From TrEMBL:
Sorted UniProt keywords: Activator, DNA-binding, Transcription, Transcription regulation
Presence of keyword Transcription: yes
Taxonomic path: Bacteria, Pseudomonadati, Acidobacteriota, Terriglobia, Terriglobales
InterPro entries documented for this protein: AraC-bd (IPR003313), AraC_XylS_family_regulators (IPR050204), Homeodomain-like_sf (IPR009057), HTH-like (IPR037923), HTH_AraC (IPR018060), HTH_AraC-typ_CS (IPR018062), Tscrpt_reg_AraC-type_HTH (IPR020449)
Protein name according to UniProt: AraC family transcriptional regulator
UniProt-recorded Gene Ontology molecular function terms: DNA-binding transcription factor activity; sequence-specific DNA binding
Length: 294
């Protein structure tokens, strides 16, 4: 039985090698190492040369999505060895406890995502390692997750959590040894949900009405508010307020604007309302939060 891999860096995908927890990919990442808002997931983008990754053990699920390059790679695992042909869109799926060694025979760019078994809920089923996986829907989902990471999470932690749930649902329904149903609450389709989140994020400085946001989803205000809450666990107003406070924090850090001016920029009609909402959400006034004196 393979021992659990100890926790590694909170911002790096790590494996156990020679009894040490080390990054899976030894080269510097193409993306900047910044905290990621989703739970139980790490996502990295790498430009990988013709290198060998020495034998290691995975403590979490690991997914590779090849973005460029078409050179073969060779793997060794569980007494087996094989050379795989690759192309953009080729994927690898490895389950926790996998011990393997890799050799990439040429340069490639790839997304690597690891996730903890907890993402799949209690009593998750077993999964079979796939060294040559063809799953366009999963590849599309990973590219969407990378787009959020690369643009610094413009739709916030709520949308990141929903993407994580979408990943869990796909894995359980398509790749578990015994497929399982994984129903997300609510009926608001992800494309409509994304449009409404983008609309709210792009219009934080406006006094938005519920019917304005509902129109982006093609629904009545009542139907939209009900489905939005059932899908996300938040009301549209709570999401909008969270995004306004997050944008205000960014402006407090990045500019020397007056507090009242920042409040206007993020959609508060008066400085008093802004200060009150900020204090309720953060536990300090904007001025105290900016100076760090709380």
């Amino acid at each position: 039985m393979v021992k659990p891999v100890p926790a590694g860096s909170p911002t790096r995908i790590s494996v156990l090698r020679d009894n040490r927890v080390v990054p899976l990919i030894p080269t510097a990442r193409a993306g900047k190492a910044t905290p990621q808002p989703w739970r139980h997931i790490k996502l990295e983008r790498h430009a990988v040369g013709a290198i060998e990754i020495p034998e290691h053990v995975h403590g979490e699920f690991c997914l590779h999505l090849q973005l460029s390059g078409a050179d073969d790679f060779e793997w060794w695992s569980e007494g087996r060895n094989r050379v795989e042909r690759t192309a953009p869109g080729a994927m690898i799926l490895l389950a926790p406890g996998t011990r393997d060694r890799l050799h990439w025979q040429g340069a490639s760019e790839r997304l690597i995502l690891s996730f903890e078994p907890e993402l799949l809920g209690d009593a998750a089923p077993s999964f079979r390692n796939r060294w040559s996986l063809d799953d366009p829907a999963l590849a599309h989902l990973l590219r969407g997750m990378e787009a959020e990471r690369a643009s610094n999470w413009p739709l916030g932690a709520l949308y990141a959590d929903l993407l994580g749930l979408g990943l869990a649902r796909h894995m359980l329904q398509r790749h578990a040894s015994t497929p399982r149903r994984f129903e997300l609450q609510g009926k608001l389709p992800m494309p409509k949900l994304r449009r409404t989140l983008e609309f709210m994020t792009d219009n934080l400085n406006r006094d938005l009405r519920l019917e304005d946001v509902a129109a982006e989803a093609g629904l009545s205000p009542f139907h939209f508010a009900r489905e939005f809450r059932a899908t996300t666990g938040q009301t549209p107003y709570q999401y909008l307020l969270d995004q306004r406070i997050d944008r205000a924090k960014h402006l407090l850090r990045a500019t020397d604007w007056q507090v009242g001016e920042i409040g206007q920029q993020v959609g508060f009609a008066s400085p008093v309302n802004f200060v009150r909402a900020f204090r309720q959400r953060v536990g300090a006034t904007p001025g105290a939060w900016r100076s760090g004196s709380f």
